[in-house]
């Protein structure tokens, strides 16, 4: 098999820090084009990464380039239409989260990809962290017993300048901090526990900054059909001097904690630390997760690995997010059919 002809759409921070440098180091990739409305930014990046062509419009790029895959790194409200256009033109898609702003659109992408025998992979890099893979194996082998409670949070420190304008617009972002940060924690909890069926959800949202159209703090409560409870707390800017990111998993035979990984088990009536040794730092772990994720996408295209972050998985997470916003709007618990 020859090299994959690839383009990147949207040249923001995730493209500059993650996608472009990783793709340029992969022997199996021919990075032929980028697309962004900012010509000056595109000129700098095409020179830096030695990329032959720049396009302002994605439809023009798709028409002129013979692409095997496209990486959608544009603002969230472009994810669905750009991904759909790529699939219509028989191009495989790696799209950053969220796959779409609404579950119906996520399902349309999943169905179209299946009809055309194409791959859509969604950028949920937590799934590709080494510590998450280790923890998932512990849970799958019932080392912690039945999981009955997961508590996760992502609380960002006080920083007025950290948001981009489009993130604060409901029509463009689909929501606030819950769809931005909360979706990643929900996906992590679901991935670790085998995508259990959600029975009901409840969300409480808050707008600390009155100038925003969307929530900048929220609490979500998820209940699975098996009885497991999940709580998610998120905020873009709490009155804190440092970020707090955590996931705690409690089972009937043990418990686990992420950031950093720690696993405790009950053995012979004693609490024993059974955490495997991991030498890499948090920073290295996140960088490697992105490399693992993008490399996996191309192993899927080669047919040697199964998609670990599929459009159908993303559709399920988007359904949960939709239900959470319905709960916040109505002030009631929402049941998923």
From TrEMBL:
Residues 133-256 form the GFO/IDH/MocA-like oxidoreductase domain. This is Gfo/Idh/MocA family oxidoreductase. It comes from Caldithrix abyssi. GO terms for molecular function: nucleotide binding. It holds the Pfam family GFO_IDH_MocA. Residues 4-123 form the Gfo/Idh/MocA-like oxidoreductase N-terminal domain. InterPro entries: Gfo/Idh/MocA-like_OxRdtase_N (IPR000683), Gfo/Idh/MocA_Oxidoreductase (IPR052515), GFO_IDH_MocA-like_dom (IPR055170), NAD(P)-bd_dom_sf (IPR036291).
